[in-house]
Amino acid sequence: MRVLIIGARGMLGTDLLKEWTTDELIPASSRDADIRVPEQVHSLLARTRPDWTVLTAAYTDVDGSEGHPENAFAVNARGTENVARAVKEVGSRLFFVSTDYLFDGTSARPYEPGDPIAPLNVYGQSKAAGEKAIREHHSEWCIARTSWLFGAARACFPEKILRACETRSELTVVADQLGSPTFTRDLARMIRDLVRMDARGTLHVTNEGSCSWFEFAQETLRQAGRDSVRVSPITTAEARRPARRPPYSVLSPASLNTLGLRMRPWRDALSAYLKELREMGDLR
Ligand SMILES: NC(=O)c1ccc[n+]([C@@H]2O[C@H](COP(=O)([O-])OP(=O)(O)OC[C@H]3O[C@@H](n4cnc5c(N)ncnc54)[C@H](OP(=O)(O)O)[C@@H]3O)[C@@H](O)[C@H]2O)c1
């Protein structure tokens, strides 16, 4: 099977290439095709003719999207539509990676794929438009919504916490947003397995369990042996970030579980991530 990865240089894309050795993978970066440009996307698909296309490329700057909605929509909405159209034309199936930020966080239980979406920020709105474009322009697709990604290939939350504690003995972290941290290695393996089983429809794919950013920071420091650093909880209002974020965006594992699949708990995934950092020499 030939699998085209669009977004191959990103945090998730990098781990997809590392974890997926069972098929013929074709990595594509923005240098191979800018997904905002239909002709470039069309020519990439015509050249590679994959059985499956995995689209991980996105404009992922959540706060930056607020000041520049046109950038977020150009990539996440129209760019995704360009890919959906070109993928359909060559008879490829499409796997799209979406987000928990589609939800407004008012639910009292983990979100299921069929729950109504109501994104609070521009990034979430642009990804919702991307999902809609796929449903309108293609019929052979699988959408995996995920959340709070961390991985060794790029800067991410636990890495920023570890870097911050090199120069500071006290940190403040938001404690009133709950979600599920997800390791890009684990997500990459799950995407590989879902594609290989020819999955379809909308799924929620995160590591199991949930926490606040504050708890995520505490656990990162504990597992990294940096217990002496003091972390204090603050509120979302106190953090004064440009983009609104849902107070609760935990995604239910039920859609995966019914396929006989499950992800490990986020704390175990975090320890695998820290092990990878140690092996890379990025953590003492
Ligand atoms: N990070 C999270 O916490 C999170 C949470 C939920 C969902 N997601 C979703 O998960 C997916 C992967 O996220 P990630 O964190 O791995 O992203 P990332 O590290 O920011 O990588 C995104 C990639 O998108 C590519 N890209 C951006 N604009 C492009 C364009 N116009 N044309 C072609 N490629 C373009 C970039 O390619 P180049 O490097 O080649 O320029 C970049 O490597 C995204 O769809 C994101 O929306 C992420």
Short description:
With 284 residues, the protein is an alpha/beta fold. It has 11 helices and 12 strands.
Structure description:
With 284 residues, the chain is α/β, with parallel strands linked by helices. The protein has one domain: Rossmann fold. It has eleven helices and twelve strands. The protein has helices spanning 11-19, 38-48, 62-67, 69-89, 122-137, 157-167, 184-196, 213-223, 236-239, 254-257, 266-279, and strands spanning 2-6, 24-28, 52-55, 93-99, 141-146, 149-150, 170-174, 178-179, 182-183, 201-204, 211-212, 230-234. The strands form four sheets. The protein has a six-stranded parallel beta sheet, sandwiched between helices. The radius of gyration is 18 Å and the shape is globular. The N and C termini lie far apart (40 Å). The model has no long low-confidence stretch (mean pLDDT 97). Bound molecules: NADP nicotinamide-adenine-dinucleotide phosphate (NAP). Residues 7, 9-13, 29-30, 34-36, 56-60, 75, 79, 97, 99, 127, 146-149, 154 line the site of NADP nicotinamide-adenine-dinucleotide phosphate.
